[in-house]
Amino acid sequence: MTRRTRASGFTLVEVLVALSIFAILAVAGVSVLAVSIDNRQSVEVANRATAGLQTTRALLRADLAQATDRRVRDDQGRAEPQAFSGGEGQRLLALTRAGWVNPGAEARPSMQRVEYWLVEGRLERRAQPLLDGAATLPPQVLQEGIRAAEIAFLDRGAESPAWTPTLERSLPQAVRLTLDTRDQGRVSQLFLVGVGA
Predict the structure, then answer these.
(1) Do 123 and 141 form a contact (C-beta atoms < 8 A)?
(2) Which domain holds residue 141?
(3) Which three-class secondary structure state does DSSP give residue 92?
(4) Residue 26 lies in a domain
(5) Could you tell me the CATH number of the domain that includes residue 120?
(6) Is 161 part of any domain?
(7) Does a structural domain hold residue 49?
(8) Read out DSSP for 127-164?
(9) What residues does 153 pair with on adjacent strands?
(10) What CA–CA distance (Å, rounded) separates 32 from 42?
């Protein structure tokens, strides 16, 4: 009697089954990787939008808390009609703020003229290095993707879209800024004015 010996190795069917299982696992792995990359990009977009909102809030809070009643002159020598204004077209807000920190002891005032503008979907902060007659420094872009912005001035329980000073009050009590953003929708923030001056 002759014995048949079986050759060691895999049959064609076994190899095809193993390749099929490997292909299924590879497709699942690629799908998981694609989803994680998409999620990472979404998180980065949300983080940028949140960082822009936080920067805007911090700067506005600091500027408005230090708002002061100091009129300035433009680069042509003309006096601004009021120290604090806003709600005029693209220029949302213009103010003079005190408390400008000077760690390098440079020859400059401790006050600064600051303006907030909405230009082509960007919220920009513009500052002047000197109060009177100085050209504005390059704008600092705080947020992008803004569809619309509304500003309101609150004083003695009344709300107004523009600020007009009176003999008794040159600054409002609070400012409300509402931004309609592409990434976060409508965001409304309220800031007290002149509390740190």
Answers:
(1) yes
(2) 60-145
(3) strand
(4) no
(5) 3.10.610.10
(6) no
(7) no
(8) EESSSSSPPPPPPEEEEE-EEEEEEEEEETTEEESS--
(9) 160, 175
(10) 15
Tens-digit pLDDT profile for residues 98-124: 877 666 667 667 788 899 999 998 999
pLDDT in tens, 68-91: 888 877 777 777 777 788 877 788
pTM for the whole thing?
0.72
Residue 30 confidence (pLDDT) above 60: yes
165 is a domain residue: no
Domain count, the chain: 1
The answer to whether 145 and 181 have CB atoms below 8 angstroms apart is yes
Cross-strand bridge partners of residue 140: 125
d(CA 155, CA 172): 5
- Which residues, other chains included, contact 112 with Cβ-Cβ below 8 Å and sequence gap of 6+? 96, 97, 100, 127, 128, 129, 131
**For 132-158, what is each residue's pLDDT tens digit?**
777 788 898 988 888 988 999 998 888
